[in-house]
Amino acid sequence: FFGETAGKLRLLFDQIAQTRAVYLLDEFDAIGSRRGDPNDVGEIRRVLNSVLAFMEEPNSTDSVVIAATNHSEMLDNALARRFDEVVEYSLPDDQAASLLLNRRLGKFKPAAKSWSKVKPLLNGLSQGELVRAADAVVRDAILADAARVTIDNLCAALSDRQAFRVRFHPEPSAK
């Protein structure tokens, strides 16, 4: 309910202070969004201020706290100085994407000579998208009792991931 988020975060940060561990705060943009959003009724600002205060508490934890987001551009600038390290993962180049697919497909990978069809479909896909495409075709091969993935099925899975990417993450239009 409205106003409860900061209290729940207080409980979380109390737990972090009491129990030494590695904590992952996934989708951190949900609580670390930039202040000043015209649609905010004050809740985002209160939540972010609470997070910033919790993170500034002296000797607050011996734990490792990791925050993850796919939308770093949405994070408030004040968060940057609260973290010791910032690690960004860029999209893999063709070589890294091919290596990832080969490793993920394992014994199910198609013949090497057919990989030229795959290369144009790798551009712009993240490591996660490549893994999902590989897992889907391996699953289909297992269900079909096939020894290998077909290059056509792999291309179709990569094309599906490309279509999904374009649909939900369109490129900014050139001005």
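The above is record 1. Record 2 follows with the same two-line structure.
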Amino acid sequence: MKRLIFIFWVFIGLTSFVLVADFPEAEIKNESIKAKLYLPDAQQGYYRGTRFDWSGLIPSLEYQGHQYFGQWFENYDPKVHESATGPVEEFTVLGYDEAKTGDTFLKIGVGTLRKPDDTKYSFAKYYDIVDPGKWTVKTKSDRVEFTHELKDAAGYSYIYRKVVRLVKGKPQLVLEHSLKNTGKKAISTSVYNHNFFTIDKQPTGPAIEIKFPFNVQATGKGFGDVVMASNNKITYTRALNKGESVFSSGLQGFSANVKDYDFKIENRETGAGVRITSDQLLEKIVYWACATTSCPEPYIKIQAEPGKETTWKIFYDFYTFPKTASAK
């Protein structure tokens, strides 16, 4: 009997270990922020879809008792395009239109993918991964450094680096990027951050405000009804229902000035916010929200000639303010 009990608890212990250690991850912190990151892995990684860059997924970030990221979707599948959390990024595809059925194309931060047919590319579709490239990850107490190297992917080759870093003495997270073109084809693409914020698990509704440094205008699904864009804010007239979403393919009002890459997402009910800035000019801003997350999606243009390297940064400054009153 004792032997059976011992075997039972050993089994439970092993099962618990598997559940805890399912996904490669790392933790970083500074004086005021603590965050967890999922690490890229072709076999065991939390996210193995073909839409988003596999580096920099953040399932939790805590500041001053407020939680900024979390699972915003209901059903999890590692290969489903939307099974990603945190400030995840997507590059537009390279070589898809030129590829014939059965040939390959490239998604930076994902790998070499197979084109299955002549239909138009869809970010929501999973494409077979021919070569996931080589990932190298270095972790420190306040940062994680990712390097993705891919060779001869539909004629393209590159070394892509991303550092997710917490700044010493400041409530700030920085995403530092570099892309070196090691191939013979020029790289011309766009990249955006989806910004899957779920501040304190607040449902999307009147408590959530998105602020801009310009007079924002928008048209699209839900705008002018459940979601309003006026002056320098996007606000909601009511809470979004489960399964409901709003969308604009391009917010208007920004200029060709790097200072316009400056957004604030605030939860007025709990008094927590984040400011998002960059050192790059905006190409466009897509906006999408569902019942659990509100996402300004700023795009920038990326160009790298053979042998050349390009760099860019995104900054996240976290703050608090009196509840029910928006920060100035």
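Residues 2-20 form the longest helix (19 residues).
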